[in-house]
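Case study 2.
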Amino acid sequence: MPNTRYRKGYRFEVRVRKFLEGLGYKVFRSAGSKPLDLIAFSRDRIFFIECKVRVNRSTLKRSGSRIIELARGTNAKPLIAFRDENNKIRFYDPVENREYTIPYIRSIDKYI
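Prediction:
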């Protein structure tokens, strides 16, 4: 892996992937990793996920519009996974402009 930013992004993708797999989702990494990083699915739910190591509000909105466009016309729910200031995984739903933390994601189907 050529550069540090890529490595950090890749490691975070792997972390998000393992987390979702632990919840019972099948997760695939998208080749090329732009703009969609992960596709996660269960029997009745599909997520298109973009992983961001560092975010601010404008990054979330910009990334959100891209991933919403990708999910348009599919059954997939667009999400952005990011690290908060405490290095915890958080999820942002760009359609509902809402953030989810890990305790809520444990029962993700209930909230999304």
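Strands lie at 26-29, 38-41, 46-52, 77-83, 89-93, 98-101.
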